[in-house]
Amino acid sequence: DTEVTQTPKHLVMGMTNKKSLKCEQHMGHRAMYWYKQKAKKPPELMFVYSYEKLSINESVPSRFSPECPNSSLLNLHLHALQPEDSALYLCASSQRGEVHQPQHFGDGTRLSIL
Amino acid sequence: DQQVKQNSPSLSVQEGRISILNCDYTNSMFDYFLWYKKYPAEGPTFLISISSIKDKNEDGRFTVFLNKSAKHLSLHIVPSQPGDSAVYFCAASEDQGGSEKLVFGKGTKLTVNP
How many beta-carbon pairs below 8 A join chains A and B? Predict the structure, then answer.
């Protein structure tokens, strides 16, 4: 069982829609991440939040807007997406500290853009 | 440019034998390495990690070896079990201003035959 919960599991939306992906963890982790994974490709980092502040944005288009309302929640707001944005969107979390800590992933949201 | 490479897209082994998955990296700033296992329709599951100050880390049936001079790491699974059949991702971490950036290889699909 994953301790990082992502909703919804599947999402189909048109290019003019606005929707949000949600991620929740209750492990006390203070770093949270969004990744995008296309079919038969590895996950690619999009955003990193550390202590609820955006610390890394991997030059992601502005039609993707992340939000971290508190230490347990991470949202990804979607607007005016393109068909090539169809992918699996993965959320992850990890401890923050002096030493490296592994990232733990949710099962993802499968997003299809019509 | 691919900073983390898994040159074998697939590997097939017999149950009870050793599985060896290989990974090469190019970025000398990477200082933490991880292996993830991924089943279809699930997110990556953390398996084992190793810091660059070590050359070996063992956890049950899983052992990771790191050769920094060759920029090479490997995952050994002994004995292999049919339930180990999955896609295995190698990942490397770089500290960027206090935040971890994880870079994944393309994955190796392991099939363990009964």
Answer: 65
